[in-house]
Amino acid sequence: MTTFGNILLALTMLLGALAFGLTASLLNHRDSWQKSVQTAREKYEDVTVRLAEKRKEINSQYTELSRASVGWGQVWDNVRTQLFNPQAGIIQVGIGSSAGLTREGVDGSLMPTIFAFQPDQNSGGMIYVGQFKAMEINANNATLRLMRTPLPGEVNTWQPGNWRLRSEMPPGQVNRFDELAIQFAVAEEMTIERLQNLNVQQELLTEAISQLDQRIAELNGLTANQKNATELLKKGLVSTILEEEQARNQELAVLEQLREELFAKYNQILDLAKENLELESKLPADETVTNAPAIKQTASADNDI
Q1: Residue pLDDT, tens place only, 242-264
Q2: How many CA atoms lie within 13 A of 188 on its CB side?
Q3: CA 135 to chain centre
Q4: Which of 111, 155, 164, 210 is in Cβ range 3.0-4.6 Å of 86 for a Cys bridge?
Q5: Which has the closest alpha carbon to 101: 136, 135, 137, 69?
Q6: How much is the pTM?
Q7: Where are the beta strands (DSSP E) in 122-259?
Q8: Pair type for strands 75-85 and 142-146
Q9: What average pLDDT score do residues 171-194 get?
């Protein structure tokens, strides 16, 4: 083999070794790249899912924001509120015409309607108080009156402080409170009806107890100061019956004694009749004939007994 051939052979072997190393390195880089691509694909899919959830949450928040902000009109926060005449549903608020609380209508003759909310000490939010009508509006204050009759005990829940006032409320919310007011009115009517029925039942119970006491008193004996009471009722039916039973028992005992005496007399008569017959049999014949009528009378008396 010539020198040139040896050189070519050496170059071929060197290039083969170099190609083998490059191939192994290329394979390693390909595996690493595929792993990176797989990891990036998984991250992309996870981010896509999370992005969809975040978009849904954002849309929900936008919807909630629109629902909460639309239909509420003008809002006055931290309005100093005092109870002017709570029994009549009248309050006094620290805003007036200077804060935008003005009359309505073309000629400005209509008093505005205000929806009032007071702080809730438990939740830290606001709770609905009611719909008020302005009675008097000044520059820095106004007098408002509840547009319905306060419910029993309702004004006791009103607390003076910083209230929130709104000029409008969504119709759905207003209808909800109207339905609750109707339900409360129906429940109140049912309660009144049941209380009246309970009072009637209580009166009937009282009358029944009174009659029962009267009957028990008649059995045991009425007091002496009761008017129009007979001696029988004063003594008592039970005592009267017991006395009558004792009298009957005494009469039965006397009757039984008389029966025993009668039976003894009857036996005595029978013994006498028998003795007379024996004596008759011992008499002579002529005396027997003479005493025959007497013996017959005795026998007749025995038969009558």
Answers
A1: 888 998 999 999 999 999 999 99
A2: 10
A3: 40
A4: 155
A5: 137
A6: 0.46
A7: 126-137, 142-146, 161-166
A8: unpaired
A9: 82
